[in-house]
Each structure stands twice: as C-alpha cells, then as structure tokens.
Amino acid sequence: MSLKHFRPLLRAVHRDAGYLAVGLTIIYAMSGLAVNHIKDWDPNFTEVRQTLQVPIGELQAEPGQSPANDQLARSVLHALNWKEPPRSVYAPTADELDITFENADLHVDLKRRVAVHNGQRDRFLLRSANFLHLNRGKKAWTYVADGYALILLTLAVSGMFMIKGKQGLFGRGALLVLLGASVPVCYILLSRP
Amino acid sequence: MADPYQPHRTLERRQFLRTAAAGTAITALGATWIFADEWTNSAMAAATRADGRPRLPPGQRVIEALKPMGGEQGDPDPASFRLRLHGEVERPIELDFAALRALPHQEHRLDVHCVTGWSAFDVRFRGVSLPELAKLAQVKAQARYVIFEAAHGYTANVPLHEALRPDVLVTWEMNGARLPRSHGAPVRAVNPYLYFWKSPKWLTGLRFQSTDERGYWEVRGYNNHADPWKEERYA
C-alpha cells in the first residue's frame, strides 16, 4: 500500500484514537495539575479542625473498647448535640476517648472536658481523578492505563505521517516535532549535575 | 488672563504625588513580601545544628506548618490499629494503640524536610523511640535494615543504625494534638534525618531485616538513602 492510500487510514485512526483518549486525557490532566502542586495544597481533602467544650461531669473510660465506653461516647455526643452515629469508640487511656466517624474524629480529653474535632471533606472529583492517575486501585486499572499509553503512542505516530507537504513531517511538522522533543532532552542535559 | 489649564495641572501634580506615594508603598510592601521568605531562609541557613551541619539543608525553604502531601489514607480508627514488630527479632509482637501509648514516650521538637523542597522547623512530636521498640522486640544481631510498613502496601527502608537514633519516633501526637487523618492518624513514623517520605503515615509495622529492600518511592526513582544534607533526592 503506498503512502498516498495509507494516509486516509492514518487520519481515521488518529481521529478515532483522539476521541477515545478525550475522557482519560481530561482525568490525567486534571489530576496531573492537582498533584504537581501538592506542596501548595491538599488535592484530595479540605480539613476542618475545631475545639469543643464538653458539658459533662468528670468521667473515666476503660482503656480499650467496652460497652461502658460506648455509653460514655453517647453521653459526650448527646452533650455536643452530635447526630452522626460513631463508627467506633476507643479509649487509649482512662482519661481519653476516641470517637471515630466516617469522615471525622473526636478526641475527647475527659479530664479537661474538651473535644478536638478533626474532620475532612472529600474533593470528590479531584480525589477520584488522583485515585485513577496514581493507580491506587492497581489490578484492572493497570491495563486501562497501559491501553491509554498505547493510544497516546498511536496518536503521536499517526499524527506525524497523516499530513503531506509543507505542513507535514517534511516541513512545519519536522520543526515542531524537534522543538517538542528538545524540551525533555534540554531539561535532562541542563538539570543533571 | 488666567491660564485655564492651571487648576488642572495642580490636580495632575497632586494626582502624580499620590500615585507615586502609593506606588512606592506597594513596591516596598511587595519587595518585603517577596524577599521575606529569602531573608527567613538565609537566617535559617546560617543557623547550625549540634552536629555542625546547617539547620536548613541545601535546596530547601522554610515553611510555617507541615503539609500533608497526600497519599491514600489508611484506617484512622485507633481501635483497629496494630503495629507489628517482626522479621529478625527474638520476640515478634503486635501492639494495639493502648499498648503503644503505654510504652515510655517523650515529646521531641524536630525539623522535617520534604523532598519537594520545603522544611518545617520545631514541629513537636510525641511518641515512642525506635530504640525502645527495638529493645521490646529484641532485634537480632544480624538485622541491618528496618522496613517501615504502612497502609496499602507502602514501605520505606532505612539502615538500622540510622533508625535507632533516640529521636526517630513512632508518633501519635503533633504539636500537642492527636494526628489528623491527613498526617497519618492514628500513628505515623518520624525520622528527622532523612527526607520525609521515609517517615510513613498510617504506620502498620516495623520489619527488621538483614538485607535491604527498596521501598515504595525508592523503586520509583527516588534515592535509596535520602539524606537531605547531601540532597539525595533521586536515584
């Protein structure tokens, strides 16, 4: 098959591979921007922290887990007018009670009758994108990510040959390919000690 | 005849003076803001540690508070927390949160250095020292490395002699408050001598080994040792 007949096929492959890559490109780009600047912000959660006075009498917990601690937690939550049921209740020492919720923790100092509320709110879209980008799920996502990498390679290679003439690889295309490839090459040459 | 432009020119002069004063003030404030970081860092870089090294390692800038830096969170529930001490030990042991808290512990003011370029000074951590935990598990003489194990299979490897410093901690408290989830609740490691990825959050175990085993970031192109003063960031 000559290149003349091959080009329409390349353009079709390039077009369809491009459509296929749209969703994943948006996910990877969003997550890439978020994680690149991870030192400036937390791309997964927003944090909440507050100290609350607990209007109860002086109480003591039983270290570990126990029905008595569960009852104590109910009293604390009632005093704080806290509606969400806890996931677990645990006393690391007789003077402390840890109440764990789905997205928050209450650390109660029973002696001082003070509770510290550490909570976090999910940045749902970004956290999901980061989960996929960083392949935290492993397993099947590895195949999806490999497939995406192959689509990108297909796009790059088909993109180089699908246009002929001055706008193609023997004109403007060559210059732009060289320019793009020179960025990582120069970076490595200049940044290596 | 009075010059019709005179009042206008006076206004222009006033306007000019006001604008110039505002511009100078903004420039001065901007410069202060831009260079404040630089001045702080220069002052910090000039300070030295007890071992003679600069307090601020090369390529780092000082920030006020520790940043969480992400990571897939582990189980934050202290009730389900377990710390396994295993590998080359005479006495393998599993500690729950109350048992860990019952061990001798201290508060240390530590400097933290992140591989992304920031350092936080004088962060207060309360916890049990690695020598205390090694003594409890009776680490065998042939052990040379500690593999810090954390949630979702995260690991970080540290030579044993470097991990057994009294201020390398297994900690549950930061700056007087319990660790928040984003900082590894209920328990994380803290090693002030290496870049901070060697201090895993959501810690689950300490595995003592006679051979080295590269950890999560080490097999992904980061330096196996990670000394901030030698800028051992990448492999």
Structure description:
The complex is a heterodimer of chains A (193) and B (235). The two termini of chain A are 48 Å apart. In chain A, a hairpin with a 5-residue loop joins strand 2 (88-90) and strand 3. Chain A is elongated and about 90 Å long. In chain A, 51% of the residues lie in helices and 17% in strands. Chain A folds into 2 domains: 3-43 and 124-162, no CATH class; 45-122, no CATH class. Chain A is of the alpha+beta class. The model of chain A has no long low-confidence stretch (mean pLDDT 89). Chain B is of the alpha+beta class. Chain B has 2 domains: 1-46; 61-230, Sulfite Oxidase, Chain A, domain 2 (Alpha-Beta Complex). Chain B has 4 helices and 11 strands. Chain B has helices spanning 6-46, 97-102, 130-137, 160-163; strands spanning 61-63, 82-87, 93-96, 106-113, 118-129, 145-150, 155-159, 169-174, 177-178, 188-190, 203-209. In chain B, strands 1, 4, 5, 8, 9 and 10 form a 6-stranded mixed β-sheet that branches. Chain B has a 5-stranded mixed β-sheet with strand order 3-2-11-6-7. Chain B starts with 5 loop residues before the first helix and ends in a 26-residue tail after the last strand. At the A-B interface, strand 1, strand 2 and strand 5 of A face helix 2 and strand 9 of B.
In short:
Chain A is an alpha+beta fold. Helices cover 51% and strands 17% of the residues of chain A.
Main attributes of the structure:
heterodimer, A: 193 residues, alpha+beta, five-stranded antiparallel β-sheet, elongated, B: alpha+beta, Sulfite Oxidase, Chain A, domain 2, six-stranded mixed β-sheet, 4 helices
